[in-house]
## 1
Amino acid sequence: QVQVVESWGGLVHIGGSLRLSCAASGSIFAIYEMGWYRQAPGMQRELVAVINSGVLARYADSVRGRFTIYRVNAKNMATLQMDSLKPDDKAVYFCNVEQRLEENEYSDWGQGTQVTVSS
């Protein structure tokens, strides 16, 4: 079993910054991608940013240029640096860990951390 724990969400003013952290532990064997997704009230969960075991990252158009995802492979950790935050960034942010073993894929999620952007 894999435990995924997010931390450091919170309340920030428009234009401010937050840094989210995600740590995976437990049955870790081959993480090929870690990422952040978010879900606003009444909306579907959407991709924010993902990064593979190297440095290749993908971002949603809405956050590109404002958010940066980092990964520390040796520690099974990923960080999302969020700058120039907007009211539309308010959501619960979830960390996702994807593993592959031979032909099988495994996906684990954290409980989520709230990000609120106020005027």
## 2
Amino acid sequence: QVQLVESGGGLVQPGGSLRLSCAASRFTFSRYAMNWYRQAPDKERELVAAITIPGGNTNYANFVKGRFTISRDNAKNTVYLQMNSLKPEDTAVYYCNARNGYVNYWGQGTQVTVSS
């Protein structure tokens, strides 16, 4: 069974940093574009960052540009999201997504709370 397991969430003060990881298994990771989404309470899920295949091009939502960085390590079947200069409005559950055409896999999410 395909697995995407996120980790690295937690409570951080405004201006702080967190690094999320998403470990993938039981599918060919290198053939999938990888994305990070987030969903805040009473809001729709939104795309935060994406990294493509095979070139590893990256795209970011405007609200995280310059603060977040997505990267992937195909040897470790892992995608990362480095989050700097965190703001209270970044508080959400962050989800890892793997996509290849019409095939989509999702992780269970990890909570990120930015609060003083």
## 3
Amino acid sequence: VQLQASGGGLVQAGGSLRLSCVSSGNIVWGNDMGWYRQAPGKQRELVAALISVGIPHYANSVKGRFTISRDNAKNTLYLQMNSLKPEDTAVYYCYVQDVYSNNYWGQGTEVTVSS
């Protein structure tokens, strides 16, 4: 497994979760990485990404509530999710593009927000 996502779970509306995505040491991270999510019956959508020189981009639906960050020393990508809403319920997938433009995906971690 080259990308391992974790941190999902069941939380009440208004709560918080922090997702983590750890990569194996043989991936040389490039400048494009982030998180997608897929809710039941819906298409996968981009939630947050770090692109180029680490500039964060967010879906409008999560702006002000989610924060993406990376820890280079730990080869880990994070997604801090605050003020969670039932509509945030989905399986969250991390991805990392390496310096050779290869894309790697985590296995997904499920987030369920109860009302």
## 4
Amino acid sequence: VQLQASGGGLVQAGGSLRLSCAASGSIGSIYDMGWYRQAAGKQREVVAFITAYGSTDYRDSVKGRFTVSRDYARNTVYLKMNSLKPEDTAVYFCKAVVQPIDGPRRDYWGQGTLVTVSS
């Protein structure tokens, strides 16, 4: 199972970006999918996640600005980020809880995509 993230880049404060993360490989079932971020010198933190049933949750600092969504047919999770702030600058990682066809259920991580918000 592999997760491939894309969509990061450089944007001015107030701008928008959309991140994508596609899961592929020997996938039996995918449960929660979500996004984390890690700013320079800081610990990784959860940003948003969406369950297999479509329930979502967000960290307080992004509520009302970020939207997580999911394409179940494409095994893909998205993060639409609006009204970006310099403090949103970080490497963003996607994570999926996956039951592979031939192994135990566990967490899988994407490679990270850099989001830089200039002031």
